[in-house]
Design goal:
Elements (H helix, E strand, L loop, with lengths): L13 H19 L3 H12 L2 H21 L6
Helix pairs in contact: 1-3
Bound molecules: protoporphyrin IX containing FE.
Protoporphyrin IX containing FE binds next to helix 1, helix 2 and helix 3.
C-alpha cells in the first residue's frame, strides 16, 4: 500500500480524533491483509462476534490514546 493518506495526528476536536483512531485501526488491518476479497469474506464473522467487536474497540482505544496525547488532550 503506497498511497499517501496520513499527514498529521492533529485534529480540531476530540470527536475528529476518535474518528482518526478508527481510521488508523482500519488501516492497520488493511496493511496487514491488503486482499479486499478476504477482508469482505471475514467481515461478517467479526460483525457478529461480541468478542471480535470488543477486540476491535480495544484497538481503536489504543490508537485514540496516541491521538489524544498528540493533541495534548485538546486542552485549550
Ligand atoms: C467495515 C472498523 C477490523 C473488514 C468497518 C466499519 C468500521 C470498521 C467502523 C464500517 C464502515 C462504514 O460502514 O462506514 C473496524 C475496526 C477494526 C476492524 C476498528 C479493528 C481494528 C476488520 C477486520 C476485517 C474488517 C479484521 C476483516 C478481516 C471490514 C469490511 C468492511 C468493514 C470488509 C466493509 C463492510 C461493508 O460495508 O461492506 N470496519 N474494522 N474489519 N470492515 Fe472493519
Amino acid at each position: 500500500m503506497t498511497d499517501h493518506w496520513l499527514d498529521s495526528l492533529i485534529t480540531d476536536t476530540p470527536q475528529q480524533g476518535f474518528e482518526l483512531a478508527v481510521l488508523l485501526s482500519r488501516r492497520g488491518v488493511k496493511y496487514t491483509q491488503p486482499d479486499l476479497s478476504i477482508l469482505q469474506k471475514l467481515r461478517p464473522e467479526y460483525a457478529d462476534s461480541a468478542d471480535a467487536l470488543t477486540a476491535a474497540s480495544q484497538v481503536v482505544a489504543t490508537n485514540f490514546q496516541t491521538v489524544a496525547a498528540a493533541n495534548d488532550y485538546w486542552r485549550p
